[in-house]
Specification:
The protein is 49% helix and 23% strand. It is α+β, with helices and mostly antiparallel strands. The chain folds into four domains: 67 residues; 105 residues, PAS domain (Beta-Lactamase); 65 residues, Orthogonal Bundle (Helix Hairpins), CATH 1.10.287; 150 residues, Histidine kinase-like ATPase, C-terminal domain (Heat Shock Protein 90). It has a six-stranded antiparallel beta sheet, sandwiched between helices. A hairpin with a 5-residue loop joins β12 and β13. α6 runs antiparallel to α7. The longest helix is centred in the first third of the chain and has 67 residues.
């Protein structure tokens, strides 16, 4: 009986110990589970924060691409294909593939620019260069027009042998920048040409003023010693002629300055165009070279117009003076065509040496002279254009070398 009691007591103690051990194990497992959950929670929270940060970075990245209107792409080194990752250049008039589009080099690229782009990609894929930059032209889809594009590329990954495995790049349309560059180059060229023309103008003006001035001074100095009336009259006529030449040069400079400064207002009046042109023809007949005739061609027997008569007269004088200067044989014709849509075209046609195509626009520029050896300051046609514009009209020339020239001015009739 005593042995049974002792055995029961020992069994009870063992059960209690086992229960406490199991309870301890449960508590320890619970603590470990809680710790694991806390650690897992922190890890998840960190991963979520990283995901949010990555999402935010992607949004900012896309925003930057959109604001700069860039496309991003990478090159499959093995195949040489270009895979577009994103493109924010706009699809209306730009070759802008959708995301994931795979294209071969040269698609829609202007053929002349393909070799330099191909060389750039080859150098990147073979590891000869680390990064590259190139400008090229692309064809606008469904059009024959082109636009300028600029690309930057860099080796992003290499294998254990150091050979490139991934090349990434960006492309951007740069039409506006190219237009600005061209405008700057053109402005620089114009400035250089203007400087050259100013130098030529000073040389021409020096020569043009000195020539009649020397004649005036020279003939005036010998005039007191000449007693023969006929010889004195000849000298006086030469002095008068050179005085008129000198005054004409100065008037040209003053006129163009006044008109461009807007200090000389239009004085409109109605007059008969036929009478004015006929009087001009009579005045210039004596100034033509021997064997050259002066004719008139009027579309109507009488034509009244309302404009600034003095300015129109000045324009026609310059045109007739040039025709007389450059016509050695044949004829000079002054006239007008039938009015059309409230405008009238007045012309001067000559059978002189003519003007090359490349000079037909430039002859209206200030100080420009086709032939530097021909007398003149290079202001006449520039004055004509300025005055024609002030009358609300246009001026132009039709000419071929050796076949004469047709200068015309088209102005409103009132």
């Amino acid at each position: 009986m005593t042995s049974f009691f002792l055995y029961t007591t020992q069994s009870s103690q063992l059960s209690d110990i086992l229960i406490w051990v199991l309870f301890g194990i449960v508590i320890l497992a619970s603590v470990l589970l809680v710790l694991w959950q806390i650690r897992t929670g922190k890890s998840l929270a960190f991963e979520l924060s990283q995901l949010e940060k990555m999402k935010k970075n992607n949004v900012e990245y896309d925003f930057i691409l959109k604001s700069m209107r860039l496309s991003t792409w990478h090159i499959d080194v093995k195949t040489g294909q270009i895979i577009f990752d994103s493109d924010y250049r706009g699809k209306a008039d730009t070759y802008a593939p959708d995301k994931g589009t795979t294209t071969q080099l040269g698609d829609n690229m202007l053929e002349q620019d393909r070799p330099k782009v191909a060389k750039m990609i080859e150098d990147l894929c073979t590891g000869r260069i680390e990064e590259a930059h190139v400008e090229y032209r692309m064809m606008i889809p469904n059009s024959e027009k082109t636009y300028w594009s600029e690309s930057y590329a860099i080796v992003a990954e290499r294998n254990v042998d150091g050979m490139p495995t991934r090349i990434v790049g960006t492309s951007q349309r740069i039409d506006e920048r190219k237009a600005m560059e061209e405008a700057l180059v053109e402005a620089r060229n114009r400035a250089e040409e203007s400087d050259r023309l100013k130098t030529a103008f000073l040389a021409n003006m020096s020569h043009e003023i000195r020539t009649p001035l020397n004649a005036i001074v020279g003939f005036t100095s010998v005039l007191p010693d000449v007693q023969d009336p006929t010889e004195r009259k000849t000298l006086l006529d030469l002095i008068h002629e050179n005085t008129q030449k000198l005054l004409r040069i100065i008037d040209d400079v003053v006129n163009i300055s006044k008109v461009e400064a807007g200090k000389e207002e239009l004085v409109l009046s109605a007059f008969d165009l036929n009478i004015m042109l006929s009087e001009l023809a009579d005045q210039f007949r004596s100034k033509l070279k021997p064997g050259v005739s002066m004719t008139t061609e009027f579309a109507t027997t009488s034509q009244t117009i309302t404009t600034d008569r003095n300015r129109l007269l000045e324009i026609m004088r310059h045109l007739l003076s040039n025709a007389a200067k450059f016509t050695d044989q044949g004829s000079v014709t002054i006239g007008f065509d039938a009015p059309k849509s409230g405008r009238i075209r007045i012309f001067v046609y000559d059978t002189g040496k003519g003007i090359a195509q490349e000079h037909q626009e430039r002859i209206f520029e200030r100080f420009f002279k086709v032939d530097e050896f021909i007398p003149g300051a290079g202001l006449g046609l520039s004055i004509c254009r300025t005055m024609a514009y002030s009358l609300g009209g246009n001026i132009g020339v039709e000419s071929q070398p050796g076949a004469g020239s047709l200068f015309w001015i088209d102005i409103p009739m009132q």
